[in-house]
Every structure is written in C-alpha cells, then in structure tokens.
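Recall that a protein's primary structure is simply its ordered list of amino acids. Everything else, from secondary elements to tertiary packing, is in principle encoded there. The following example makes that idea concrete.
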Amino acid sequence: ATSIVAAGPAPAAGTTAGASITNTATAVDQVGGVAQNSQTASDTFVVDRVINLTVIDLDGATTNVVPGQTAAVTTFRLTNTSNETLDFALAATQPTGGAGAHSGPADNFDVAAVPIYRDTNGNNTYDAGTDTLVTYADELAADASVVLFVVADIPAGRANNDRAVVQLRATARE
C-alpha cells in the first residue's frame, strides 16, 4: 500500500511580487504492512509580478444629457487587481460607432473637453473645484480602488437619441 501526502499548490493571489513561496510534499508508504522511510521534497519559487486591473462604469446606465450642457459626468472605478503597487496612465477615449457599454443607438458624435478627475473627498460624486484633475492614478496599492470622473461638454445642436460613447482607459505603468 502506498499513500502520498502532498501540499496543494500555493497560489500567488494576494502575494506580493518578489516573495518566496515554498511547497513541500511527503510520500509515506508501507510494504507488507511494514512502514517504509518517508520521503520529503520541497521547492521554492519567487512570485512574479501580475499586472491586472479593472475599470467599471459606476453609473450603470447611459448618462442622459442635453445639447449645450457643460460638465456632463460619467463615473468609473479603477481597481488595481495586481499583486504590487502600480501607477496607471489614464485616457478618456471616444470610439467611433458602436453602442459602448450600454445598449442603444450607435455613437454618432463626440463630446468636447474630456478631462479626468479623481474623487478627492471619497463621496463618489463629482464636485467641481474639489476633485483633482489627473492624467494618471499614482501609486495605487494592490487591491485598492479609486473613483474617477470623465467630465464632458455636450455640443449645442444635438437631437434626442444622439449618442456619444465615452470610455476610460487605464494603462499600468511603473
């Protein structure tokens, strides 16, 4: 009879990049009912840096605006799902055509002035003059999040059901 006792894999999730992890396995067996010497082996490896992030639209639906409106806001949450503190370059983009994240008519115009602001006071609401104009999220810790606002001006002369798709892109930086 032979039995093997082994440790399960040690996942790196939540483990800081550069940390050392050791896995150990022990084999125990019997021959003719007599216990044999157990054998143990182990191996150590260093956790690689994993770069992951999520950007989600916190509004959950299309933002309704009116022609000529200034400071129309779309709210996003950027989460660093990496295993290390990272910087993230930010860009508000406007794809041509398509319906974006929400169903509806296709994109048929671009908004003007699309700066990005960081929620400075943590209330998840854009506060002009309070929230900070940014082009990057600096030193975002692993598993930490930041709320960001893309603020746009709507051109005059638009009609009902016109649609501008605005997205937030984050690129990991060191």
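Confidence is low (pLDDT under 50) at residues 1-12. The CA atoms of residues 117 and 133 lie 4 Å apart.
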